[in-house]
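Give me structure tokens for this 187-residue protein.
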Amino acid sequence: MSQSDRRFSRVEITVHGVFALLVFIAIASAALLWFDPLAVWFGRRELATRIHTITGLLLPVPLALGLLSASFRSDARKLERLSSNDKQWLRSKDRRSGSIPVDRFNAGQKLNAAFTVGAITVLFGTGLIMGSILWSWPTKYRTGATWVHDWTAFAVTVAVVGHVYYALRYQRGDYSTAAADVQLTPP
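Here you go.
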């Protein structure tokens, strides 16, 4: 494929891969902390807590490093705004026919990116409060942060499952993320 057919740069693929790995580790370690049968099976709550905390603190790092790349910043700008076509795409029942023109990212991808960045920000902030990482917080704040953290984590887990489902369902998109190429004409 020619350079013009490339959908993602190597930096974008690396950021996505590292971020996905960190999210997977955070979800897995949270499951060890949340579900008693898994916690009993694993048996090392302190280790699971430490892994979860370190992973949570590392989550913003690949995104921040990605901002050093012009291609990553360019895509971040494209993900920022919904166009009139995006709004039409969201209301349409026939999104996959190609009858509605979309930019580099469709509206669903833009909403997922906005949700992910917002949720990671909330999880990072509430995690800092829960762990009293910067300073000691009163119990009422830690309790509230725990509630917000848990429900936001649940929503992120649902979004990740949906993201993986769509990646596996639409193989062309999955291939383009994995190999940075996209097939421009239908098979």
